Amino acid sequence: MIPKQNSGVGAQMKAVIPYKKSRAKSRLSPVLNQEEREEFVEIMLDQVIDSVIGAGIETIDILSPSMHGLENMEKARVLLDKGDLNEALNRYLEQAKEPVLIVMADLPLLSPNHIVEITSTEKDVCIVPGKGGGTNLLFIKDPSRYRVRYYGSSFLTHCSIAADAGQNIEIYDSFLAGTDIDEPEDLVELLIHGKGAAKDYISRKFRLEVSRGRVGLSLI
Amino acid sequence: MIPKQNSGVGAQMKAVIPYKKSRAKSRLSPVLNQEEREEFVEIMLDQVIDSVIGAGIETIDILSPSMHGLENMEKARVLLDKGDLNEALNRYLEQAKEPVLIVMADLPLLSPNHIVEITSTEKDVCIVPGKGGGTNLLFIKDPSRYRVRYYGSSFLTHCSIAADAGQNIEIYDSFLAGTDIDEPEDLVELLIHGKGAAKDYISRKFRLEVSRGRVGLSLI
After folding, report:
1. How far apart are alpha carbons B201 and B153 in whole angstroms?
2. Side-chain half-sphere of B146: how many Cα atoms within 13 Å?
3. pLDDT of A12-43, one tens digit each?
4. Taking a contact as any Cβ pair under 8 Å apart, which residues of chain A between 25 and 54 contact chain B?
5. What pLDDT is attached to residue B6?
6. Which of B134, B208, B213 shows the shortest C-beta gap to A214?
7. What pTM value is reported for the model?
8. Which of A160, A173, A190, A199 to mutate to test the interface with B (most CBs of B within 10 A)?
9. How far is A126 from chain B (nearest CA, A)?
10. In which band, very low, low, confident or very high, does the pLDDT at A4 lie, cut at 50, 70 and 90?
11. What is the pLDDT, as a whole number, of residue A11?
12. Using the beta-carbon criterion (under 8 Å), do A208 and B133 form an inter-chain contact?
């Protein structure tokens, strides 16, 4: 059940999804070739956009260094920025006049309900940690007072940046929103907990391999 | 902030924590030797018991095949069962007259608040998925109608067992409760998100190693 989003709230914020299709997700190369990885990131992006739309957010920007794979994008606006991820996002935040939700494009387990809860925070900033120290979503009520620094232990960095700017934070605790798909073992989570096109794509190629430890992947 | 647990509710259920100290956590052997692993599981157990106590649950049983490491246990009752995990837990469930919360002993990021929320479910069964298809916590209101089957893809198995018995389920979505500590990469989550003695133990031996991908561990 998706709580009904007050359309006024969704209208007063915007979401930005950084995206790059070319040579995406190199850490999945042990199990998917480049063509497959590029197909797969496009499917994940589409699913993430649908989750954002489902949460009632009306302005969605895709921030990309290239139009590759975005030529026919109709669900969201495409903004080109050839800078690296942090430069591009910080330029975006500088220009934003309203609260901004930064959503990574590799979150196929994310639901509209997660997004509604994250953007309903009473704090200044809401951070969704990803595996291994990452930041999967970041909701910033006053983007003029916040700058991002992804890569490395970005979750801790983003907590510090908020604290240094005198902004209080909520840490949003979710296994599903916390599962970014970067490595082969993450595909296991998609097969177990996922739904939709991204799960279908992976389940046509792999099945779960059950042993005594954690479940693995094997080729179909 | 821990919501205050109605002591009546906590009194009407019990928690069981399966535990084995000897040769525990072999998958951590690349980074901790056997003596260290046995020390570490004892510290994690103590922290998990404190979370259960903090949630207001008054009856706590530790289910173990041996008294090793439990000789001086005062915070919980110790039940010996030399059967394997599933046999021992199913014998326990058969005899239970009240709702049972099964908590794995390797969840140092679990808080009392998680436990209060899990045991407040309106469904018959509440399941907390762990990484790689595991089941980290399982709350069963009517244990006479439920049997467990851990190992392998136990999360999916436990969902099916509930469905087959006509019991409805809640899936509790938490990054922190979903982080069981089995492999070296899990220690990264403990260093980033943890607190208390388990985090202190690991942070005396390792520090975070930051690179472009997920954060890793390096020796101090």
Report:
1. 30
2. 32
3. 999 999 999 988 999 999 999 999 999 999 99
4. 27
5. 47
6. B134
7. 0.93
8. A173
9. 15
10. very low
11. 61
12. yes
